[in-house]
Write a structure and sequence with these properties.
single chain; about 500 residues; alpha/beta; 9-stranded mixed β-sheet
Length: about 500
């Protein structure tokens, strides 16, 4: 009887999308698992659920993590107490409920409240279910009042519109007040809002923060080995599987995929006909201007996207005598990812090894025609995908990263041939890691800035000589920095 009850409870938990999210959030708070890993593991555990149910889980789980600061501010306003004093399950249930009320219009507020009460009865002391019900019903009334006020003012409804309004209020507020407002509305740490406001300006920062909160499609790179007929057949198969396929913004091999679930099960993935890679990462390889016969060193390569594109590009350009990519990273766990991807994509012109990018290996001295230095960074440009980076980063951490980046760059230059090209890139938006490092490469390492425009798609904005800072609200990509240099 006990075993039957346990099996019924397990099945019940797996059939309830909100309970899946609650358990994941409790695990996240306890174990501090990175959100992208947490989401993937959670969805993997729900293989028996429908695509719609898994999409609900993903949306709610990511949304609660991303908007934690805003949600906690609302909870404290409704309850008059610190969120840290609440029962752990109640804290997460309230975050989930308020997120649904404010950001998931398709879910009726009554259903939100009722489901939250049931969760509280199962995962918190029974007496707290009434407290949860009262808080969420107050939240629903407040949300309705805010929506009515927004309609009357013509500001519209929903997260994106409210954020646009906030961005336009800079003239009516002093800088400190505007920073505080953006911190809550975009759930962003104050130090980060201030840093971007100083570097980009207040209005531009508001646009950036709004773009980072948007739900973006999966960026996929189609294999360059496909004929036009094979490409069209693959795209037709993806569409038949329910995927919405859109053309990339800058590169012909890029496609944006919407309404996806388990990417590994989609047509063509296991056969290596396409892979996941942001368009910004693809542009970093474009910046190298590969001819097809080069020796390429990718020093911090995992999970391998740039190595794969460089190897494929050279193989397509040179049927015989194609160049080789030496793809390195620090641990076997990371290089195993590269090996797995190279095997799936049928790439045989990659050599993979475990190496510390700070350590000099004399056999590689003056060996490389091209070096790809996509270095460890703060990751502030991928907040839309790794939604909890903002809660882990700090100004002190940014300073230590710059020192690590310069240590690797100093070593990398020793591998570059005379006349060779170094591509420095990061997936962040931070001048200390980007423009300041680019100036340091030219000033201290003696590399010559080499014009970037000839290697970039026509019409792409923001190129400054040998540098390009990609921004989500301008380029539609991750926040990404690319700089091109040549060794004299």
């Amino acid at each position: 009887m006990a075993a039957d009850k346990e099996n019924r409870e397990k099945g019940r938990a797996l059939k309830n999308e909100r309970e899946v999210v609650l358990l994941a959030l409790l695990s996240h708070e306890k174990n501090e698992t990175f959100s992208n890993i947490l989401v993937r593991r959670t969805l993997d555990s729900c293989a028996q659920m429908s695509t719609v149910e898994k999409a609900f889980i993903k949306r709610l789980l990511e949304g609660v993590i991303e908007r934690k600061t805003e949600l906690d501010t609302r909870i404290e306003n409704f309850t008059g107490r610190s969120v840290s004093r609440l029962h752990p399950a109640v804290r997460q249930i309230l975050r989930m409920g308020i997120y649904q009320i404010y950001y998931m219009d398709a879910v009726p507020d009554s259903a939100v409240c009722n489901e939250a009460v049931q969760l509280a009865k199962r995962h918190a002391p029974a007496r707290l279910s009434g407290f949860v019900n009262g808080v969420l019903r107050n939240a629903a009334r407040q949300a309705a009042a805010e929506e009515k006020a927004a309609d009357l003012s013509g500001a519209g409804k929903g997260g994106t519109e409210r954020k646009t309004e906030a961005g336009g209020m800079g003239h009516a507020m002093d800088a400190d007040a505007m920073v505080r407002k953006m911190c809550v509305e975009y759930s962003m740490p104050a130090w980060l809002v201030r840093m971007w406001s100083e570097q980009l300006g207040m209005e531009e920062t508001a646009k950036l923060l709004g773009a980072l909160m948007e739900i973006r499609p999966v960026s996929a790179r189609l294999s360059g080995r496909l004929s036009e007929e094979e490409r069209q057949d693959l795209l037709a198969q993806l569409q038949a599987a329910g995927v919405i396929v859109e053309e990339g913004r800058w590169l012909s091999d890029c496609r944006y995929l919407r309404r996806t679930s388990d990417l590994r099960r989609l047509p063509g993935f296991s056969q290596g006909l396409w892979t996941v890679q942001d368009e910004s990462s693809m542009l970093a390889v474009e910046a190298a201007g590969l001819r097809g016969d080069e020796t390429v060193l990718d020093l911090c390569a995992a999970p391998g996207g740039k190595s794969f594109l460089a190897a494929e590009r050279m193989a397509c350009q040179k049927a015989e005598g194609a160049g080789t990519v030496f793809s390195y990273d620090l641990s076997k766990r990371k290089t195993d990812l590269i090996r797995s991807g190279a095997k799936r994509l049928h790439l045989d012109n990659i050599q993979i090894a475990e190496r510390d990018a700070r350590e000099f290996f004399k056999e590689d001295k003056d060996r490389a025609d091209v070096i790809l230095c996509d270095l460890p960074c703060s990751g502030l440009g991928v907040l839309g995908k790794k939604r909890d980076i903002k809660y882990r980063a700090s100004m002190e951490g940014l300073s230590s990263l710059q020192q690590l980046q310069r240590e690797i760059l100093t070593n990398a230059v020793r591998y570059l041939k005379s006349g060779g090209v170094l591509i420095y890139s990061t997936c962040t938006i931070n001048r200390a890691e980007n423009e300041e490092n680019a100036a340091w490469i030219a000033g201290k390492l003696g590399l010559q800035p080499d014009a970037l425009a000839p290697y970039m798609p026509e019409g792409i904005p923001g190129i400054q000589d040998n540098m390009l800072q990609l921004l989500p609200h301008i380029h539609g990509t991750d926040g990404f920095f690319i700089a091109r240099f040549r060794k004299k």
